[in-house]
Structures are given as structure tokens and as C-alpha cells.
Design a protein that fits this description.
It is a single chain. Helices cover about 5% and strands about 40% of the residues. The protein is mostly beta strands. The chain has one domain: Methylamine Dehydrogenase, Chain H, CATH 2.130.10.10. The longest helix is centred in the first third of the chain and has 12 residues. The chain is globular, with a radius of gyration of 21 Å.
Length: about 475
């Protein structure tokens, strides 16, 4: 049996210490003068690098994994040098990234990025002040997903902690650190409404519209409960008490959340899947309290399966349940394949692709001795790194891993391993064409299919 490499233990420690801060559509207008008119001028810390030609509209499927490539990146670093030694319950602490959240439009053409143009901070010394802050102005930057070209900026009233596009692509919701929700009309780049939230100074860390666009669901980072808004009338329709984290089904009819006991300190009771037309109707999925508790939920495209995983450091485990029977059908750890292949899985997943594959990252030291260079040591060894697509029901993982030194796996050209991220999620565009992830140090990466690369049939592990 192979033993875990020493680097992995070190990375787990670093990961745990990192600060944590996630449908047909209409395109954004091609003319962006109105957006530019209200745009905040970019600070010198921002840089975006993109290709010169837009890639074709190819979906990420097993047959195109060999063509999945880093397309562009945008950089908004924070205080990389000083944040790790700061304790936010004792003082205001700078963070290593000035990126707060990011989201794709329903058609995948636009990526919205929430940023601080000063220095992003965390301060938990006083319950009467906002925990998350920015020493300068804040904004939402709109990028072309394929090219990385900036389309415009929206000036927000406070740091945007959560972003969500309306299903028709015309409205962008921003959950702010001051517990308001701003609604931006992207046809004219104007703020159309503000929903005033609970003033318990926690901010919103997750937003989502239901499929028909009639309801906006909001989750606060510190208050245990989900809010269901009629965003057009600014009416709070309902609260799901003691719900933490959520996912919405593709048909918009169901909502999954983790249900806690009478207080946040109590053990979680179960995962609940609610009928959004009747909140008194729900099914429960028992959880194993000896495993990391899931707070992020993904429905399969056909609505038949739900995946649950923890956020941040606990993202080394994911469970899959059959929704109809509530049975646990699969349970994966990061070292699911390690004993057989020496490969690990990064399970900070953006969920299911439109074709029903569960997206993960697969990596490990190349265990073919004749393929390794003569030099020894961690830096000299070759690794296999790459994204992978899992067919959970068939117990198959399709992958195309590239041999490279470990520093290239983590480096700017590839950046498959995001160990600095401290909770920053991978996200997948709804059309299945792009992946975005932030590394926790202010560097946002966007991957997509490069048709100029050779199409190589994928390899397979599991029950193949």
C-alpha cells in the first residue's frame, strides 16, 4: 500500500488555516457605454490576461477533457504577506484576496466578479459591525467568459459577498456585507431595487433564483435560516428556520438545505429537501455525524440525485443520495483511488454538468518509475493533474491527466490545485462550457475548451 506524500499533510494544515470568505437567457447588451459611465476606475492591482480568439462553444464532456485549457485570469490580490498571522476576533484582519464572489450568467457568456478595490478585511471583534469589509470602493466586474474582456463595472453600496443571475439574464442580484440585496438591471446597468435584509450584521453568502425567476433565495453567513423573497415586490415570503446552505433543483420546485437543531451549536439533524410550493412538505436524508457535514448541495440535471459536500477545508468528502428513496447511493473521499492508482480527488466541486457528470479534479504523483526523471525529491517528481468527470451511478471517472511537476499543477499556466483557496468554490457555467475558480490569493482562473488542442480519448477508472 502506498503512503500519503509528506506534502499532503503540509497542505492540509495550510488549507485549514486559510481564511474562508458561491434556462434560456438574454445576452448582456453589446453596447456597454451605460455601464462604463458608472464604472469605478480599475486599481493598479487588477490585471486580466486572455486569448485573442474566442473558443468555440464546446461543452465539457469526457471526449473534450484533453482540450480543456486555461483561457484567462483576472488578479485582485489582497494583503498576501500579513493576513495569516492576524486573528479577526481580536482585530481587523486583511485578507489575501480582494475577490468576494463570482457567478456565470445563465447562457454562460458573462462572468460577474465581486471585488474590493481597496483591501478586503474581516473583523469579528464587535457583533454590531459588519464582519466583512473593504477599505476602498467596491464593485461587480462583468467579463466576457470566453475572452476575459471586461464589459463594465457596477458600483455596489458595500462588499458583494454573493452574486446570482436571474434566469433570463437581465437581472443580477448581489448580496452585500451590510445585509442588503441589490438588484441590478443589466439592460441599462442601473440599480433597480434594494431588499433590506436582517440587520444582524452577517451579510449574505449565497443567493439563487428559482427557475421561473419569481423567487430569490438568500442565505446569511451567520444567521441560521433561509429567506425566500418575492424580489419584484420586495416582500419576504417565508423563512426556513435553522437552514444552513442550500441548493435548488433544476426544475425550480425543490430546495435542499442542512437542518440544525434549536441553536447553531446543536448537531445537525438531517438534510431536508423542501417542496417550494408547500414548505410544510419535505423529505429528510439522514447524515453521518462522523463525516464532514455537507452545506453545499447540487441536484443532478434529471433531479434524481443530490450531492452534498462541506465547504472550505472539509471539501474532501462528498455524498450522493437518491432523492426518491432518500438512500445514500455513493460516498467518496479524496483518497478514493489512492491505494490503487496513487491519485487523489479534489472534491471542491461545482456540481453536475448538463450531461449529468459530476466534475472533480484528479491529481497524484506519476507512479510509473520509468516515466520519472532521475532527479529525486518532491519538486523533481512528475505528477498527473487534470479535471475529471464522474458518472456516479456507473462508478466511473473519466479523466485526461497531464504529467507535470507539482509547481506547474499549482502554477499560473494550469492551477489545477487550489490549496490556498480556503473555501473559494469552483463554479461551472450553466451551459457546461466554462469552469471558474479563485485560488484564495486573488487570482481568478477560467477554463474552457480549446479546439486547437488534440482530442484524445479519455482514460477511465472505477467500474470501467
Amino acid at each position: 500500500m502506498m503512503s500519503k506524500p509528506f506534502w499532503f499533510s503540509i497542505i492540509l494544515l495550510l488549507f485549514a488555516a486559510a481564511c474562508a470568505p458561491s434556462q434560456p437567457a438574454a445576452d448582456l447588451p453589446q453596447e456597454t457605454e451605460s455601464i462604463a459611465a458608472i464604472a469605478i476606475e480599475a486599481e493598479s492591482t487588477e490585471a486580466a490576461t486572455a486569448t485573442t480568439e474566442a473558443p468555440p462553444n464546446l461543452a465539457i464532456v469526457p471526449e473534450t477533457l484533453s482540450q480543456l485549457s486555461l483561457l484567462w485570469n483576472a488578479n485582485f490580490p489582497g494583503d498576501v504577506d500579513n493576513y495569516s498571522s492576524c486573528i479577526s476576533i481580536e482585530q481587523e484582519c486583511p485578507l489575501a484576496t480582494n475577490i468576494s464572489d463570482y457567478a456565470f450568467s445563465p447562457d454562460g457568456s458573462t462572468l460577474a466578479l465581486g471585488i474590493c478595490l481597496g483591501l478586503r478585511t474581516e473583523d469579528r471583534t464587535d457583533g454590531d459591525i459588519d464582519a466583512w469589509g473593504c477599505t476602498g470602493e467596491t464593485a461587480i466586474v462583468l467579463y466576457d467568459s470566453a475572452m476575459g474582456d471586461e464589459r463594465g463595472r457596477l458600483a455596489t453600496a458595500a462588499l458583494p459577498l454573493a452574486l446570482a443571475f436571474h434566469p433570463d439574464g437581465a437581472i443580477l442580484a448581489a448580496g452585500l456585507a451590510n445585509s442588503d440585496i441589490e438588484l441590478w438591471d443589466l439592460s441599462n446597468a442601473e440599480l433597480s431595487a434594494t431588499l433590506t435584509g436582517d440587520r444582524r450584521k452577517t451579510g449574505y453568502n449565497r443567493l439563487a433564483f428559482v427557475l421561473d425567476g419569481s423567487m430569490l433565495i438568500a442565505n446569511s453567513g451567520g444567521v441560521i435560516g433561509l429567506e425566500l423573497w418575492d424580489w419584484r415586490s420586495a416582500d419576504l415570503l417565508a423563512m426556513i428556520e435553522r437552514g444552513f446552505g442550500f441548493g435548488v433543483s433544476p426544475d425550480g420546485g425543490s430546495l435542499a438545505t442542512l437542518n440544525f437543531g434549536e441553536s447553531f451549536g446543536d448537531d445537525a439533524d438531517a438534510i431536508r429537501v423542501y417542496d417550494l410550493t408547500d414548505l410544510d412538505s419535505f423529505s429528510e436524508f439522514p447524515i453521518d455525524l462522523d463525516q464532514p457535514i455537507p452545506t453545499i448541495f447540487h441536484f443532478s440535471p434529471d433531479g434524481g440525485m443530490i450531492a452534498g459536500r462541506p465547504a472550505g477545508f472539509g471539501a474532501f468528502h462528498v455524498n450522493f443520495w437518491d432523492i426518491a428513496s432518500t438512500d445514500l447511493v455513493a460516498s467518496w473521499d479524496y483518497d478514493r483511488e489512492f491505494d490503487q492508482t496513487g491519485m487523489d480527488l479534489e472534491l471542491n466541486s461545482p456540481g453536475f454538468t448538463p450531461e449529468g457528470y459530476f466534475l472533480v479534479t484528479r491529481f497524484g504523483e506519476l507512479n510509473t518509475p520509468e516515466a520519472q526523471p532521475e532527479a529525486t525529491g518532491l519538486e523533481a517528481a512528475l505528477w498527473q493533474c487534470g479535471f475529471a468527470l464522474a458518472d456516479v451511478a456507473a462508478d466511473q471517472i473519466f479523466y485526461h491527466s497531464l504529467p507535470m511537476p507539482i509547481e506547474e499543477c499549482e502554477g499560473p499556466e494550469y492551477l489545477y490545485l487550489l490549496f490556498g483557496l480556503g473555501g473559494s468554490p469552483q463554479i461551472l457555467s450553466p451551459d457546461g462550457r466554462f469552469i471558474a475558480a479563485e485560488d484564495g490569493w486573488g487570482s481568478l482562473r477560467v477554463w474552457g475548451i480549446d479546439a486547437s488542442l488534440p482530442a484524445v480519448p479519455p482514460e477511465c477508472s472505477g467500474d470501467c
